[in-house]
Amino acid sequence: MCTEKRRGGCALSGNANPGQSRLQLLGCHHLALAGVVEVYKGMDIITNKVSAQEQALCRHHMISFLDPLVSNYTVVDFRNKAELLIKDIFSRNKFPIVVGGTNYYIEALLWKVLVDTKEKISPAPRLAVDRKEELEKLDGQELYRRLSQVDPEMAAKLHPHDKRKVSRSLQVFEETGVPHSTFLKQQQQEEGGGPLGGPLKYPNSCILWLFADQAVLDKRLDQRVDTMLAAGLLEELRDFHRRYNQQKVAENCQDYQRGIFQSIGFKEFHEYLVTEGKCSPETSSILLEKGIQALKQVTKKYARKQNKWVRNRFLQRPGYNVPPVYGLEVSDLSRWEENVLKPALEIVESLLQGKKPLADPVKMEPDINENKRSHHMCEPCNRIIIGDREWAAHTKSKSHLHHLKKRRKLESELCAAGSQETDGDSDGAKDAREDKC
């Protein structure tokens, strides 16, 4: 247990073993804040919520308190509620463990990187109407045109097709009168700020990154889906669809980009759920298998995205105000205590006592020359690419090379045609001269 003097936050992130109790890392003296998907009521299996047995081992927060039909719950809402809980936990001489891994939300807790417009226009905890949601219903080109007029600097950093980010920047300007880019500049210029945002809010934080060999992780995630099915996933999906989604589908107003409906596992079974009982058993079986394979695929894709976020936003974060990231190898579950539990406890206890842990943090040097918001126009592909790394990857992609080859071939054909035309004109002029003579 940490003392008042040694207050600190500990963020736990990564792809831990789904079958291993996450609380084996925590111990019974600490308090945990759950990830973002777990805030919604229901869908316990598909969101992999902490079991009742696990919750009994230590106190948990932010689980199953939000109505599933609330669609405008944002990372700002999550951060605001979590910060109040963290403050309360510290006041009781405990320390919080934030369990990932929606690493975007963990980043929002650790660093000052968000703009809270709600505080500036109303003391109420929520707005009756979500302006961002209204904006996203408009035409993308119109949204980008508006943003270019009121905040050209922010518009230059965003892709014109990224309606969510464009709408968010417009929302910030409309609700505060201040360009979004101005807020971000102010955060970066604060003491301890950097290119990715403002200063670290909890200076005694550390990050425990649970990672595994990719092939091992892929197999484990496939097994996780099979375990969820055996635990009653289909029954949970049917019940949830009947209570919350059936009417939305009938009214053609379902949106799988908001609230709990955007969580992995629900939209993948959409076709199966809406046609069950209305098609042949053979077709239903095919759609079910399609949903299962889609769930496995998107789960593995999301795991890769999580690890990429850790590398790009934590390990390679520029500036000195970055908590140490300790890697814990979870490929071999038979060595869980040796490779994960004991090192994790030693790291946390050492930091709380003001000592240097025996383990060394993972080191990756940031690329100070990389611009994550640079704007590139690829004429052969007729695409806008944002970011130096994305641009480098695009120029090596098969699609780009294909369009580049087609363009060069077309240019070559046009040059050849132009050359023949010039030759023809020369011959004609020569014949005319000969006739004149």
TrEMBL record:
Pfam families given in the database record: IPPT, zf-C2H2_jaz
UniProt keyword terms in alphabetical order: ATP-binding, Cytoplasm, Metal-binding, Mitochondrion, Nucleotide-binding, Phosphoprotein, Transferase, Transit peptide, tRNA processing, Zinc, Zinc-finger
Reaction equations catalysed: adenosine(37) in tRNA + dimethylallyl diphosphate = N(6)-dimethylallyladenosine(37) in tRNA + diphosphate
Chain intervals for the UniProt region annotation (Disordered): 415-437
Entry EC number(s): 2.5.1.75
Biased composition (Basic and acidic residues): 427-437
InterPro entries assigned to the protein according to its UniProt record, in alphabetical order: Dimethylallyltransferase (IPR039657), IPT (IPR018022), P-loop_NTPase (IPR027417), Znf_C2H2_jaz (IPR022755), Znf_C2H2_sf (IPR036236)
Molecular function as annotated in GO: ATP binding; tRNA dimethylallyltransferase activity; zinc ion binding
Family statement drawn from the similarity comment of this UniProt entry: Belongs to the IPP transferase family.
Protein name: tRNA dimethylallyltransferase
Organism encoding this protein: Crocodylus porosus (Saltwater crocodile)
